[in-house]
Amino acid sequence: MAKHIDLFWSCGMKVLITGGAGFLGLTLARKLCEKSYLSLGQDPQQVIDCIVLNDTVIPQTRPEGIDERVSFVAGDIAERETVGKLVDRDDIVIFHLASIVSAGGEADFDLAIRVNLTGTLNILEAARARAGAPRVVFASSTAVFGGQAMPDMVSDLTKQTSQTTYGMTKTIGELLINDYSRKGFIDGRSARLPHIIVRPGRPNAAASSFCSGVFREPLKGEDFAVPVPPQTLLPLLGYRNCVQSFIHLAELPADVLGDDRAVFLRNQGHTVHQMIETLKGVAKRNGLVLGKISMSHDPVIAKIIQGWPSQIDSARAERMGFPADTDLDRVVQDFIDDFMPS
Amino acid sequence: MAKHIDLFWSCGMKVLITGGAGFLGLTLARKLCEKSYLSLGQDPQQVIDCIVLNDTVIPQTRPEGIDERVSFVAGDIAERETVGKLVDRDDIVIFHLASIVSAGGEADFDLAIRVNLTGTLNILEAARARAGAPRVVFASSTAVFGGQAMPDMVSDLTKQTSQTTYGMTKTIGELLINDYSRKGFIDGRSARLPHIIVRPGRPNAAASSFCSGVFREPLKGEDFAVPVPPQTLLPLLGYRNCVQSFIHLAELPADVLGDDRAVFLRNQGHTVHQMIETLKGVAKRNGLVLGKISMSHDPVIAKIIQGWPSQIDSARAERMGFPADTDLDRVVQDFIDDFMPS
Q1: Which of B19-23, B44-48, B169-173, B196-200 has the lowest mean pLDDT?
Q2: I need a surface site. Which of A75, A326, B80, B317 has the fewest CB within 10 A?
């Protein structure tokens, strides 16, 4: 029995998720609780014995699906000492999701630099200080692109010319992940997220918040005003496959990634009009009465959104075996199944 | 007379050059002493009343061509307080050339982050704290490129995938220059330098140091071992046109640059073999006996150099009116005229 425990611990690992109290952090933690291991190559599987969810504000009560292996630790990643305490084991995998988002960064430049640049450097330095070059999965974004020279279709080979401080700091994060990995300090990977839908809860400070709101609020029976034109084309990914993609990226052998460790996650392009039509069909099938959807142009949001790419070539992610949504109807149904009491 | 003085001071300006004791910093300072003004748009010309050359080590005696308007200030740009004292006027133009270079950054990662990232942030923050969004010209590099996906010919539209910490931090500098400018904090511009030749003095820690050494040492009658194969193609620019390009970039109206303020300077591609043949012709014409040139492969240098682009499309710089070398012979003759006692 003692031997069994020894073996268990010798192949155990800690998972740290920054931004862990956010929707994607919690969804990832739930999935890892369910899965209980990560396949990192050395052994068939490494058992997760501990998951730490770090965030600036943490929940007062344990959320559903989050078991006793999970602990919440409040703390600011811009404080180096805080991060050192979070990254306290060599056998650790870090999912670095914490970030000031797009509209938030436009409103407070210094906060975006503090969290997204200093915070990311602190995470990387703490990981570097551990033995064995820990895996670090960094959440990057479509917002790394923008500007006058941006092509209609972007890919993993397109130059990053962000027009938001958020996107600029995400690009810096990708560069740091690549260089820390090249130096052998960490084994880093960056996942570029398209717009992730359908996020539950309240709207956030992301300019793309409406991509979820246009489904969520009407499904709750609330009216919703869409801030961009109906023909706006948006690259979308459901949260289930987003979280599966984080895990897939953590588990991928490093040589598959090559020297550029930033990968655009798979996505489907839909116009706002198509999103609304799909929503109507799903609502009808589920016997739900939708709130009223109106068009109410918001020049600040529209400018940020129009500055981002509408079409993303994610063929590289496809070759690497990342999961993809089959259709938008299914993604909306997932939200109803997961978050709406029947 | 008093009125004349008032007018003089009201349109006067300070120029700060970081890395000012380096070859390009001193050459730029000499050119600005000779020129005495910068044309920044508001007035026909702004008189330079003060040039500060900052560096970690400063010369003991005043170098030739550096007049009494110029002062040397020793100090580390990674110290925020030091930078605040250097950027002490609103009417300032900053040429930010200080950097840990390629092989230096590979040898000491932390020093490269400290000087190239923290130092650059300090410069940008100090400029932001002044009124009127000062112009900041940042020296970037060919080294921003590299890696498996790099195309044979790079341009201002190519994705930066540096394989050195130096190039990675230069890319971050370009991104910060763009975002600080977009926010209206500064009016920044980045000049991407090809290999600048012929640098006088001793070799430095740049992997490209041999691009100057292959001319300089044989011209001094000293033997020189070339660390890369003779067919290696190198994008080159003479130092005279490099310094003229810094000034041209400082003077360009911002709207000419658009939202991506990083410009590859013009360059000519030459192989090491062509460089040596040109050198032989110039030496013969000048009656100089060359030291012996041999081939001595250095795997560390060769790997860095082969990872950088050999061909650079600088058509954008050409459209913007940047100066170009006419031929390599002229560039070598400039070095003889400027630095070799006849």
Answers
A1: B44-48
A2: A326
